[in-house]
Amino acid sequence: MKILAIETSCDETAVSVLEGQNGNLNVLSNAVSSQIELHKEWGGVVPNLAAREHLKNIIPVLETALSKAKTKQEDIDLIAVTQGPGLIPALLVGVDAAKTLSYVWQKPLIGIHHIEGHIYANFISENKVNSIFNFQFSKFKTKNSKQNTKYQILNTKYKFPMLCLVVSGGHTQLVLMRDHLEYEIIGETQDDAAGEAFDKVARILGLGYPGGPAIAAAAANFQFTIFNLQKKSNNKKSNTQIKFPRPMLHSNDFNFSFSGLKTAVLYLSKEFEKNSKLQIPNHKLQEAIAAEFQQAVIDVLVHKTIKAAEKYNPKTIMLAGGVSANKELRDQLGEKIKETLPTTSYNLPPNPYSLDNAAMIASAAYFRWQKMSQTEKNSAKENWKTLEANAGLRMNDEL
Ligand code: KG4
Ligand code: ZN
Question: E strands, 251-369, where?
């Protein structure tokens, strides 16, 4: 079967065509038009601007996805769309486009939870055969166009129960899955999401938007030699290392908190600003703070994931969401699993699928479709009448 999926929950207009055959799914096209350049100016995503861009881009991105997949409307068996959560003006564009296509093409339609999509990006695995396409509408050029890659979903590779650490711009959750599409949230952030903390700290440090990649790059440049900083505190000169708290590291649950960490960065930056005697260039300070902040976030995420795994004994641990693009997090969690839980497999979304895309939505839709009864499948053709975007959609809500 061929699935056409649409994702517009935030600042990426994305359409993908994915083919499913005997449990394997091949991504035939993955078109993504990023709005980063537009929102950069504002230091974050502006919902109404995002919606306007989605409206402008949705048709060209759709056409690109279909043509790159060499697929015509009559070949599509199912339409899937991100129903929520996300920015409502942005979600409405994708949902409306999907409903219109479903009505005009007379194809079944299903709504997918955005985070469910991120989790199912893990089921896309790399296999070098076919071509993948990344579409940058604003620049009208193909990213990675030289890459000859086929992405397949190998259903049998993953064993339940699975534990997924979800880290995105809006969510930080530990999700236990005893089977496909069954989610138990065993821990979550009490305030800011991990990605949100990266973005806010990047803003404090003047590193720009989006914050995650900027912090990661600054942290990678950090050199240990400047770590012993001389600073004045209460008129006493002291050698002080930059050290941030690891919030809720030893709390008796699997929850997280990142807003205090962001405040700690803010106070320290202000202190450094006031202290003109520091002989360290500003970018070196930024790098030192970014490195310690990133490490504080990773320490908490890794510690809680391992603790949860020791309690629930998953056969597979997965990472999902935009922050799963962070190389240090990917590597450090992998090393800790190898060291403490050597029989547990570790899975990651292939790099292009950590960030928002529509292939992940199609992947989740494939597994939803397999679980639906024939009656449900038949009535999915009428879903265009009732499907509504829902900014606050929860994981276990009926979709
Ligand atoms: O999943 P996503 O693309 O959108 C949401 O569903 O929220 O995640 C976006 C978040 C942003 O906060 C961004 O700063 C963060 O993912 N991010 C990263 C990295 N790349 C993106 N955070 C840390 N390191 C990265 N390399
Ligand atoms: Zn996302």
Answer: 316-320, 345-347
> 142, exposed or middle or buried, with CB in 10 Å at 0-12, 13-18, 19+?
middle
170 lines ligand 1 (CB under 6 A): yes
First CA to last CA distance, the chain: 21
Q: Is any atom of ligand 1 closer than 6 Å to the C-beta of 356?
A: yes
Q: What residues form DSSP beta bridges with 15?
A: 6, 31
Is the pTM higher than 0.70? The answer reads yes
The CA distance from 221 to 238, in Å, is: 25
Q: Which of 12, 331, 355, 357 to mutate to test the pocket of ligand 1 (most atoms within 8 A of CB)?
A: 355
**pLDDT tens digits for range 231-242:** 444 434 334 478
* Cβ neighbours of residue 158 closer than 8 Å, sequence gap 6 or more: 122, 123, 316, 345, 347
Written as one string, the DSSP assignment of 177-190 is ESSTT--EEEEEBS
Which residue shows structure tokens 């990917």?
330
